[in-house]
Amino acid sequence: MAGSINKVTLLGNLGRDPEVRSGQDGSKIVSFSIATTESWKDRTTGERKDRTEWHRIVVFNPNLAEICEKYLRKGSKVYIEGQLQTRRWQDKDGVERFTTEIIIPRFKGELALLDSRGSMDDDVSGITDSSSDQPPAGIDDDIPF
Which residue has the higher pLDDT, 22 or 139? Predict the structure, then answer.
């Protein structure tokens, strides 16, 4: 049995189209942010309340990266299984920063497309690969990779 587990499961919608770039070895890396929203009824006022959280996703799995690039668009509903990872980096002013992301590594993780959009074929919805490997203005888009 493993000594520890690092697993994140999310179901949400993309805030904008995915960003695709190449790693040092030429492999595709896809990143995007998804929103998850929790809703509840306020006990004192009876008013419905919502809280939205934004999660940055980075896909290193080449098969899933290809699917993300081809089929995901702003508003797409996706199911993600990955690992939580915090990185340290320096911004352009030399200030040390931290960012926490959900990583889908090369040989683990899962991604399922849960809705069919106009450009997506019905047989592609729900594709997963577990054997291989418009956020709000406050999210820093200048994070280096």
Answer: 22
